[in-house]
Amino acid sequence: MKYKRKNIVLRIFVIFIMVVLGSFTYVNAYLNKINKVDITKDNEKLGIKVKDNIDKNEEKSSGEEVINIALFGGDRRKINDVVHSDAIMILTIDNLHKKIKLSSIMRDTYVNVYEHGMTKITHAYGYGGPELAIRTLNENFNLNIRDYGFVDFYGFKNLVDALGGIDVEIKKYEIKEMNKYIKELADIKDTRPTLIKKSGMNHLNGEQALSYSRIRKVGDGDFERTDRQRRVMEILFEKMKNIEISKYPSVIDAILPNIETSLSKMDILKLSACVLSWDNENIEQSRFPTDEYYKQRKIDGVYYIVADLNETKKQMHDFIYKDEL
User: Are 81 and 172 in contact (CB under 8 A)?
Assistant: First the structure.
């Protein structure tokens, strides 16, 4: 009898191992579709000043406990265009407070870019790719970013379509600008545009959602655009949490080939497992610089957002590391 029990336990154990290995092989195969890019790990080249945090509390949270990942969205219209970071965000995995945080950085913010002087922060990616863009964020805001993710317009569109679209409240003054971008995307693909006809709640496909995220010249300009981008990110996050298992392959096929990242497959698996284990399911969001600490100025005929960088740095640290704002 004991032998039979041992035999049954052994069989269950073997089946369990096969399932686990099978799942790992499945996930591993899909993660191979991501465009993995190696970047430097050198603190100086990334602009990380380990001992220069604002206070001792941040030193405790500047390593594995609070992980910051730079997220860049590409503004290229065609596949072979030079890439610029049209959207700049910082994804924070806050293990101390068990939260996910998303910080938007205004693309026109006037900052110092290494070896290029004072200019718009959005130019850093075009000048020197992800390493210079990360260095610019770290040096100007005293952060500890070591990795990044980049998604171009095509990857974003494909993800929304794979998820079956998203529901977004469209304001009346956004329609004309949104349709302009929809037509532009349709012209690139030589397809017929599906235009927005009314304000209010609309179910957007990938092309429409991307166009909505690009709206800039109405409302509160780029400030409102960052709000739209974070809103869309939050909606996508919610949809991805609740999709049916049967849709996993199509969603993975749509987004992974369009992602470029410095994170390893093991990094992605570890971070995903960590986040999925938390009870808190909401993304906390903020935008920098905040309204009270910037001025809009023209310098040599070019429009910039000139921020109080010291105060902005402090606010970012309060939000990212101390969970305050």
Answer: no
